[in-house]
Amino acid sequence: MSRPWFANAPVAARAASLRLTAAAGFCALGLAAAAPASAAGDVEHGERLAKRWCASCHIVGPSQTQGADNAPPFATIAKIPGFGADKIAAFLMDPHPKMPDMQLGRGEAQDLAAYIASLAK
After folding, report:
1. Which CATH superfamily groups domain 43-118?
2. Coil, strand or helix: which one is 98?
3. Rounded Cα gap, residues 85 and 117, in angstroms
4. Is pLDDT of 111 > 70?
5. What is the pTM of this model?
6. Closest CA to 48 of 112, 117, 113
């Protein structure tokens, strides 16, 4: 069995290599921990998208009084048990036939879903 490349390296070089490996591992953990926060979506951008793309059918906010009869208000969608922002975003990426194909990007779907989920409060 062959020995690793660093086996014959001076002790200081091995220690430096281990420190770099540990630092890289901590950076990777930090990025992984930050990922859910960045994937959460921008509620304010989602609200702007909702007003522009969805308000003709859905009641998208508390100040809107009318929507289409067959489209549920966003507050109602937000309160469906187990239908959080992640599931809403996935739904928006593959809308059902009654919805127009808005061709939302993943980030836009996450933002819109974050806004809808914020209405559950």
Report:
1. Cytochrome c-like domain (1.10.760.10)
2. coil
3. 5
4. yes
5. 0.65
6. 112
Cβ–Cβ contacts within 10 Å for residue 10, how many? Answer: 9
Q: Which two tokens stand for residue 7?
A: 């086996």
Closest CA to 114 of 35, 44, 33, 34: 44
Taking the domains of the chain in order of start, what are their residue ranges?
8-38, 43-118
* 43 within 8 A of 37, measured Cβ to Cβ: no
In one letter, which amino acid is 25?
Answer: G
- The values of phi and psi at residue 82, to 5°, are 75, 5
pLDDT digits (tens, 9 = 90+) for 50-98: 999 999 999 999 999 999 888 999 999 999 999 999 999 999 988 777 7
In angstroms, the CA 75 to CA 86 distance is 16
Instruction: Measure CA of the first residue to CA of the last residue in the chain; give whole Å.
Output: 62
3-state percent helix, strand, coil for the chain, nearest multiple of 5: 60, 0, 40
Q: What is the DSSP letter of 51?
A: I
Contacts of 118 (CB under 8 A, 6+ apart): 43, 46, 78
**Two tokens, residue 113:** 């879903």
